[in-house]
Design a protein that fits this description.
The chain is globular. The chain has a domain of about 180 residues: Exo-inulinase, domain 1 (Jelly Rolls, Sandwich), CATH 2.60.120.560. With about 270 residues, it is mostly beta strands. The chain is built from one helix and 15 strands. Helix content is about 10%, strand content about 40%.
């Protein structure tokens, strides 16, 4: 027992001295003491498999994907009003049609569809594609449309440089219950400013708005002062212009000048002028 008591202070002294030497061996810039060489540490090993280099699954995440292909539009039915004068756009030529725009765009037949050529930045201005024949009075306009931008679009009837009827369809937005389709009488002043009078709208239960990237069939028919509108063969609204109405003019389709909608198989059926 005496031997152990004597060893304890000696062992403690050796431990303290060893700690002091360890601290003193570290480099100290203040006294110019050089660093003590450390023993080489083992490096981690890497296993590189043989074979070709494989790209990361996310390597192309920032690469722009090609534009989604647009399928061919369905054909219109053969139903034609008896005695009607029929004209149309089938995707091959714009002859007999004209653009009526508030911006610098052109309508072109490309990939068998009616599309916009927009040399400037897209805008929210009105762009119409209508018949050069300005004798449309009673009759109907049918068209398939394919929307990619969610812009308002639709059909125009009995148009001139100063007035026309406009049917408007909006995209399906399920966060609200406001109407997604309207019938307006639009007047345009000398400065190109529009003023519209609403004639009617579609109840949300009958039309929830159009869907993107799908062909939708729209039809607007006018007889006297009454306009009737249908989507995919189902009537969604009608309205009467109690002011006496516009008598005749051109007819066609419209959307915003943003290259966000394509049209195909446009058909105008015009009955005799009253």
């Amino acid at each position: 027992m005496k031997f152990n008591r004597l060893l304890i202070p000696v062992i403690a002294l050796l431990l303290v001295a060893g700690g002091f030497l360890t601290v003193a061996a570290k480099p100290n810039p203040s006294n110019g003491m050089p660093a003590v060489a450390m023993a080489a540490q083992p490096r981690p090993s890497y296993n590189i498999p043989a074979g070709e280099i494989v790209d990361s699954p996310n390597a192309s995440a920032m690469v722009e994907t090609p534009r989604k292909a647009v399928p061919a539009a369905p054909a219109l039915t053969d139903a034609v009003q008896p005695g009607a004068s029929v004209s149309g756009f089938d995707g091959s030529s714009t002859e007999g049609w004209q653009g009526v725009n508030q911006s610098n765009i052109a309508w072109v037949a490309r990939e068998d569809r009616l599309q916009q050529s927009v040399p400037d930045l897209p805008s929210e201005q009105t762009a119409m594609f209508v018949s050069k024949d300005s004798n449309f009075a009673d009759g109907s306009v049918e068209t398939y449309f394919y929307a990619t931008a969610g812009s308002p679009l639709g059909i125009v009837l009995r148009g001139s440089a100063t007035e026309y009827y406009r049917v408007t369809f909006h995209m399906n937005v399920n966060t609200n219950n406001v109407s997604k389709a309207y019938i307006d009488r639009v007047s345009v002043d000398a400065n190109g400013v529009e003023k519209k009078v609403n004639l009617g709208s579609a109840d949300i239960s009958k039309f929830q708005g159009y869907s993107l990237e799908t062909w939708t069939l729209a039809r607007a028919a006018i007889a006297g002062n009454r306009i009737t509108v249908s989507i995919n063969g189902t009537e969604i609204m009608s309205a009467t212009d109690s002011t006496g109405g516009l008598s005749q003019g051109w007819a066609g389709i419209w959307t915003q000048s943003d290259n966000g909608t394509q049209f195909d198989n446009i058909r105008i059926q015009r009955t005799a002028v009253r």
